[in-house]
Amino acid sequence: MPELPEVETVRRGLEPHMDGAKLERVELRRADLRFPFGENFITSLEGQTITSVGRRAKYLQLDIDNNLVLIMHLGMSGSFRVEASSVAAQPGNFTLPKGVHEKHDHVIFHLREASGQPCRVIYNDPRRFGYMALIARSNLEDHKWFKDMGIEPIGNALDGAYLATKFQNKKAPLKSALLDQKMIAGLGNIYVCEALWRAGLAPTRQAKTLAQKSGKPTAMADRLSVHIRDVINEAIEAGGSSLKDHRQTDGSLGYFQHRFAVYDREGEDCLKSDCKGEISRMVQSGRSTFYCGACQK
DNA sequence: CCATGACCCTGTAAGC
DNA sequence: TGCTTACAGGGTCATG
Questions:
Q1: What is the set of domains in chain A, with CATH numbers?
Q2: Would the N or C end of chain A have less CB density within 10 A of its end CB?
């Protein structure tokens, strides 16, 4: 499910329950996801308190009060659900009703929320492309997953000048360049397609054609940067996209998929006013690209 | 440097 | 109804 807007939606769903919560028990229902859990995964977490629930690109980052960071990546099919009591916790030994294991529930965090309420956070991942790892806070920036990571697509760092500079000598197709996490981290297949359509730029165009010889940003690079930021922000506001029934942590559905202009719309009419084209599908670097051949140049 | 394909794993939908 | 195939939001690795 996970591009940046979906991961951010998950983060916002987890934060009220996990920020300040104590990890009373960590239950692993198998030895690995995509990678094995570290040997000390459980013992490093149990009894500790979560001090913040953050995100970098498509990675969730939970700060633990023993100077470790719990990194969680959702892969293609990972999701969380929260089981919390709706009634105020009673003093003493209040506990949640026994939970029901669903297929592909792999990790269960048994929490005591900052408020004192008991809570379970359950990670489910049919394809197991997701992963979790503990990294020392002091080594985080140097870790292989983060050291070459590009800028966030939302925020001030992304503008036409950044794109023009980064793409200066890039012969790769624009679509591939935008998927490169070393350029912009967190952009995935869907939102790249959507941003290119909004900007009226062909996914096949060489990335370097957005950069001027002088190195100054072109109108195209400016336009693209604006549309990337807009589409990501709009998707976050909409609670992400609910493909394949992916749900938010409270079980509700995001609805941004209803606003896809090109993704999964092969053969349908282009939605740009005055454009008579229809949406095509092609494969670039092994992934589907959806685009309008008539208005994306 | 770049492009392509295989791979990790399971579920779903389409086609026969 | 069953079987087979293609495909899916990510990311890494080997190969040419």
A1: 4-142 (3.20.190.10), 160-292 (1.10.8.50)
A2: C
Q: A2 an active-site residue?
A: yes
A3 is annotated as an active-site residue? yes
Is residue A117 within 8 A of residue A95, CB to CB? The reply is no
Active-site option among A11, A58, A175, A265: A58
Alpha-carbon torsion, ordered A128, A129, A134, A137, to 10 deg? -150
**A48-80 pLDDT, tens digit each:** 999 999 999 999 999 999 999 999 999 999 999
Residues near strand C (C-beta below 7 A) are A 1-3, 6, 34, 57-58, 73, 75-77, 127, 129, 144-145, 181, 188-190, 241-244, 246, 286-288
pTM for this model (two decimals): 0.95
**For A173 and C14, how far is CA from C1' in angstroms?**
22
Start-to-end CA span in chain A (Å): 29
Six token digits for residue A195:
């941003």
CA dist., res. A149 & res. A169, Å (int): 19
pLDDT in tens, A94-105: 688 888 999 999
